[in-house]
Amino acid sequence: MTITVHTNPSYDILIENNCIRQIGPYATTLLPAAKRCVVVADTHTAPLYADTVLRSLQTAGILASLVTFPAGEQSKNLSTISRLYAAFSQSNLTRSDFAVALGGGVCGDMTGFAAATWLRGIPFIQIPTSLLAQVDSSVGGKTGVDLPEGKNLVGAFHQPSLVLIDPHTLSSLPTAFFSDGMGEVIKYGCIRSRALFERLETEDCRKYLPEVIAACVDIKRQVVEKDERDTGERAILNFGHTFGHALETLQNYHGLTHGAAVGVGMVLITRMSEQNGMTAPGTANRIAALLHRYGLPSVCTESMQDLISATAHDKKSTGNSVKLILLKDIGHCCIQKVPRADLPRLCREMQ
C-alpha cells in the first residue's frame, strides 16, 4: 500500500512487508544524483536491520556507512546531533546525498534534524521500526531534540523524501515497546476515528496491524496536508501531549515512555474537560480502559502542581495562553485556548 503526502515537497509512504530490503532501488530511483549516504541507527535496531539496509544500498551503487547511538530518549540531545554531524562529515555527504533514519521515533527525529541542518538541508529517508514511529513520528516532517528544559524544544520542519514502513519489523519489538506505540494509535482513534477506537476495544489489533498503521498514517496525512507548519489544525495531533510531555520532562526521560505518558495525558485532560462540561461523560473512563487493555497506565503519579509548572515550555503556548486539545466525544476533538493562569483551577476541578 502506498499513501502519498501532498506537502512541499510531497513524498510517498510505502506500507509493505520486507520493503526495507529494497531501499537501495527505491533510493537510486528517487535520488539519482546521490552517491553516498549515512544510515543512523540505535543500539537496538542496528544489530537487527543495519546489515540488510547497508547491503541493499551498496548493491544499488551507493557508498553507505553506519553510525549508531545508545537507544533511548536520553540520547535525543544536541551532543548526539554533533556525533551525527561528524559522521556526515567523515562520509563527505554533499547536498545531493542523503541520510537514512533506521529506528524508532528518537532516531527519526534526530536524523531528520541533522539532515535539515547539515549543509542547510539534505534529503533523508525514514525507515521506522517501532509502532510509535510507524503510525506517527515518521510522517509529517517534524524533527528535533530535547533540552533539559523540555521535550522537542529545538527542531525544524523537514519532510522526508520517502517513508518505508515494514510491519515485519514489529515482530522484534518487546511487549513494552509495542504498548508504547499503542498510546499514539489510541490517540488517533480519540481525535478522528470512532470506528478505529471501537475496533481496538473489541479486537486485538495485532491481528490487523497493517490496517491500523494505514488508518493512523492516513489521518495524519490529512491533517498535515492542511497544516504543514503546525499553525492551526495540526495541533490536534498533540492530544494528550501537553501533560504527557510534562510528565516526561519531570521524570528526566527515565520514567514513562512517550506513548505511556501521552496515554496518561489523554486521561488527565479528558477528566478535566468532562468536569467542565466540554466532553461527554464517561469518555475518560473509556480511554483509561483501552489503555489498560494494551498494557498502558492511566494514572498520574506526579503532583498536579509540578505537572502544571512543567508545561511552561509547551510548544502550543502563545503569550500567556496554551492551546489544549479536548475531546467532545470519541472521534471528535477541538482546540481550546486557555489562559495559563486558569490551568490550576481547571486541574483542581478534575481531582
Automatic annotation (TrEMBL):
It catalyses: 7-phospho-2-dehydro-3-deoxy-D-arabino-heptonate = 3-dehydroquinate + phosphate. One of its GO terms (biological process) is amino acid biosynthetic process. Belongs to the sugar phosphate cyclases superfamily. Dehydroquinate synthase family. This is 3-dehydroquinate synthase. The keyword Kinase does not apply. SUPFAM superfamilies: Dehydroquinate synthase-like. Residues 67-177 form the 3-dehydroquinate synthase N-terminal domain. Keywords: Amino-acid biosynthesis, Aromatic amino acid biosynthesis, Cobalt, Cytoplasm, Lyase, Metal-binding, NAD, Nucleotide-binding, Zinc. Binds 1 divalent metal cation per subunit. Can use either Co(2+) or Zn(2+). Its EC number is 4.2.3.4. Pathway: Metabolic intermediate biosynthesis; chorismate biosynthesis; chorismate from D-erythrose 4-phosphate and phosphoenolpyruvate: step 2/7. One of its GO terms (cellular component) is cytoplasm. Residues 181-317 form the 3-dehydroquinate synthase C-terminal domain. NAD(+) binds at residues 105-109, 129-130, 142, 151. It is found in: Cytoplasm. It is an enzyme of class 4 (lyase). Its cofactor is Zn(2+); NAD(+); Co(2+).
